[in-house]
């Protein structure tokens, strides 16, 4: 009995004719795809104009080529049993639309490296099985920026993935009017188990602080109604930025005026402006955890400045807690209330009163010290 002779592979030589036009430091991604299954067989990243693959005879392939700032190139290749070498020349065309992506961490907005971005042309896809034929995959271990070349009047799907983070998916449609698309994508941390019956996300470890003013000692008790929403109260607080800046300069001598603008900007732009939308993100994560049949104990602490007596400050803190409680109850059409009724979401509210234990630097004015103490803190109990 004679052993069956093994068929020799075919050498596939690919030449990228306009490699010289590709920007310095960039590379070209060339992939060989199973033409029947849509499965990627092999990918190579090159900075030269020549790429060599070994392929099987009598087989159906797809060749995918991608480079920053150029249209993706896809070609069908049917090898023959008689082939020994195949020479394929590819001419890349500069893209009509450039998609520039940057990926960062939520909520800090710090750059996130080590991501993989998959871009799929959805325009010609009839079945999920052949999706890989129209896909371009890029990874960036050293940075967080990605550049893709797109065609006009096409629908694309963007999928961004990174270890330890939730996968992000978005569909976009290109038009003749848009030449550059910029997107800053923020990935949320994945769930992290901390004990048997409770799951939290990493960002829950640090309490979130929500700064807003709800009545003052010199105001009438009904200045704000109990139904006033947090979003409205935080916006009203933002309107006091200039007033607080002027008052702070009156309190401090001229040598300290250099700190006034800095503290004013930090409080109103960062502490209020940056965090005012975080409540919705926080509650969204709480809901995700509860949807996984976990339990959460949520602590809410209300604080006030030292103005007014202890009794009044406790009442004031209770009002601030009530505002946030209303936000929790009405979130997503009352979905969290259902978990509260089941006992999956337990809320512990504490009206602390005047915050006397977090004094700020001496160069802070009294008005800004007081402003920093009017807040509600939320955290998940460990």
Report how far the terminal alpha carbons are from each other.
Answer: 72 Å
Global Rg: 29 Å
Q: Low-confidence runs (pLDDT<50, min 5 residues)?
A: 127-131, 193-199, 358-363
User: Element order, helices and strands?
Assistant: EEEEEEEEEEEEEEEEEHHHHEHHEHE
Shape: elongated
Class of secondary structure makeup = alpha+beta
Largest sheet, in brief, is:
4 strands, antiparallel
Number of DSSP strand runs: 20
Question: If strands are numbered along the chain, what order do they take across the biggest sheet?
Answer: 3-2-5-6
Mean pLDDT: 79
Describe the structure in your own words.
The protein has 382 residues and is α+β, with helices and mostly antiparallel strands. The protein contains seven helices and 20 strands. Strands 3-2-5-6 form a four-stranded antiparallel beta sheet, with no helix packed on it. Strands 10-9-12-13 form a four-stranded antiparallel beta sheet, with no helix packed on it. It has a four-stranded mixed beta sheet with strand order 17-20-18-19. Helix 2 packs antiparallel against helix 3. The longest helix is centred in the last third of the chain and has 21 residues.
């Amino acid at each position: 009995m004679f052993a069956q002779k093994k068929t020799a592979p075919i050498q596939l030589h690919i030449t990228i004719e306009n490699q010289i036009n590709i920007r310095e430091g960039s590379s070209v991604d060339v992939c060989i795809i199973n033409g029947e299954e849509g499965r990627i067989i092999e990918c190579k990243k090159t900075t030269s104009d020549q790429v060599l693959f070994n392929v099987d005879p009598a087989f159906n392939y797809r060749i995918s080529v991608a480079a920053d700032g150029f249209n993706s190139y896809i070609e069908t290749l049917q090898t023959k049993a008689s082939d020994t070498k195949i020479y394929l020349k590819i001419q890349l065309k500069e893209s009509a639309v450039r998609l520039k992506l940057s990926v960062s961490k939520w909520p800090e907005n710090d750059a996130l490296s080590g991501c993989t971005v998959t871009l799929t042309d959805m325009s010609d896809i009839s079945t999920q099985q052949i999706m890989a034929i129209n896909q371009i995959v890029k990874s960036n271990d050293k940075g967080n920026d990605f550049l893709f070349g797109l065609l006009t009047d096409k629908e694309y799907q963007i999928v961004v993935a990174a270890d330890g983070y939730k996968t992000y998916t978005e569909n976009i449609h290109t038009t003749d009017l848009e030449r550059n698309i910029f997107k800053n994508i923020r990935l949320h941390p994945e769930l992290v188990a901390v004990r048997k019956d409770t799951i939290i996300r990493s960002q829950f470890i640090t309490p979130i602080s929500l700064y807003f003013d709800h009545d003052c000692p010199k105001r009438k008790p009904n200045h704000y109604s109990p139904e006033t929403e947090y979003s409205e109260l935080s916006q009203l607080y933002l309107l006091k930025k200039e007033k607080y800046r002027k008052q702070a300069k009156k309190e401090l001598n001229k040598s300290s005026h250099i700190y006034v603008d800095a503290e004013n900007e930090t409080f109103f732009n960062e502490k209020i402006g940056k965090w005012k939308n975080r409540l919705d993100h926080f509650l969204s994560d709480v809901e995700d955890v509860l949807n996984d049949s976990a339990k959460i104990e949520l602590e809410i602490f209300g604080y006030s400045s030292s103005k007014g007596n202890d009794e009044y400050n406790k009442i004031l803190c209770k009002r601030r807690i009530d505002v946030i409680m209303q936000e929790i109850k009405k979130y997503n059409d009352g979905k969290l209330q259902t978990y509260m009724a089941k006992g999956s979401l337990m809320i512990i509210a504490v009206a602390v009163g005047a915050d006397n234990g977090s004094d700020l630097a001496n160069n802070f004015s009294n008005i800004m010290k007081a402003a920093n103490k009017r807040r509600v803190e939320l955290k998940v109990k460990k």
